[in-house]
């Protein structure tokens, strides 16, 4: 699919955006019980209100790969994290993967996908410029990008801290364009959660959720490529 897009010049191959979105697991709070509690493991979740629960001591007996995770100001839910790398030219998804939900998954998945894009270019001298939001503004991520000959066009997080993004990158013309273009990636997530029904998956375990997510993003690409390839002849009704 990406090879066809490349032939039609729908991919830049160097200007990307990376982001993540949370996927609700097909498991409820009552399934999230202590690992050493045989009664709860047999299906009697009981009343968990007021109980301190942690991914270190508890797990879902319905889906052991799901993790209790809080997103922003919302309530904690059993979730996975879906990650995509999209090409900025037309917003086509160049890479997609699902990981366990934790505080490190977003940057680790981003580094792996950016490295894949780096290798796909087959030109060590050609620079890649991935855009990302403030969640990726971390010293270890910026340093990892530099090691891959990648210019991280990451939104600077200057609230009470010093941004890890070098000023030379943040003040470049391409940086401003990347910040505008990275919003295209949200279209893929929006389509996946509404049309693709990825807001809450109806499969369990990481491998199956990942397969479903990748296939859904491939379907999004097909729809997007269909739109890009439409040529309406003059006079056609």
Give the count of helical stretches. Answer: 8
What is the typical, i.e. mean, pLDDT?
88
Helix/strand order: HEEHEEEEHEHEHHHH
For the secondary structure, the number of strands is 8
Rg from Cα: 20 Å
Global structural class: alpha/beta
What is the CATH homologous superfamily assignment of the largest domain? Ribonuclease H-like superfamily/Ribonuclease H
CATH class group of the largest domain: Alpha Beta
CATH fold title of the largest domain: Nucleotidyltransferase, domain 5
The main sheet comes to:
6 strands, mixed
The domain tally reads 2
Distance between the termini: 29 Å
Q: What is the general shape? A: globular
Please give the structural blueprint.
Elements lengths: L1 H6 L7 E10 L7 E3 L3 H4 L16 E3 L6 E3 L7 E11 L5 E8 L4 H17 L7 E4 L6 H9 L5 E2 L12 H4 L2 H9 L3 H10 L11 H23 L9
Parallel strand pairs: 1-7, 7-8
Antiparallel strand pairs: 1-5, 2-3, 4-5, 5-6
Helix pairs in contact: 7-8
Describe the protein's architecture and organization:
35% of the residues lie in helices and 19% in strands. Residues 232-237 have low confidence and may be disordered. A hairpin with a 5-residue loop joins strand 5 (77-87) and strand 6. It has two domains: 2-21 and 65-228, Ribonuclease H-like superfamily/Ribonuclease H (Nucleotidyltransferase, domain 5, 2-Layer Sandwich), CATH 3.30.420; 28-62, no CATH class. The longest helix has 23 residues, at 206-228. The strands form two sheets. Strands 1, 4, 5, 6, 7 and 8 form a six-stranded mixed β-sheet that branches. The radius of gyration is 20 Å and the shape is globular. The protein has 237 residues and is α/β, with parallel strands linked by helices. It has eight helices and eight strands.
């Amino acid at each position: 699919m990406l090879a066809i897009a490349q032939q039609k010049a729908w991919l830049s191959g160097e200007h990307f955006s990376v982001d993540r979105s949370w996927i609700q697991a097909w498991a409820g709070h009552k399934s999230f019980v202590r690992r050493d509690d045989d009664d709860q493991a047999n299906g009697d979740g009981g009343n968990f209100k007021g109980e301190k629960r942690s991914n270190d001591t508890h797990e879902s007996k319905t889906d052991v790969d799901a993790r209790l995770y809080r997103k922003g100001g919302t309530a904690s839910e059993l979730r996975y994290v879906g990650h995509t790398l999209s090409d900025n030219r037309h917003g086509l998804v160049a890479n997609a993967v699902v990981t366990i939900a934790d505080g490190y998954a977003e940057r680790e998945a981003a580094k792996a996908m950016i490295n894949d894009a780096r290798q796909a270019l087959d030109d060590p001298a050609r620079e890649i410029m991935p855009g990302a939001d403030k969640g990726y503004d971390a010293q270890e991520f910026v340093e990892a990008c530099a090691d891959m000959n990648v210019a991280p066009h990451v939104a600077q997080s200057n609230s009470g801290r010093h941004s890890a993004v070098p000023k030379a990158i943040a003040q470049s013309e391409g940086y401003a364009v990347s910040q505008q273009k990275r919003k295209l990636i949200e279209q893929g997530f929006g389509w996946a959660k509404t049309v693709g029904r990825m807001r809450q998956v109806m499969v369990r375990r990481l491998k199956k959720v990942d397969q479903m997510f990748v296939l859904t993003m491939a379907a999004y690409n097909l729809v997007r490529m269909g739109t890009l390839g439409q040529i309406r002849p003059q006079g056609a009704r």
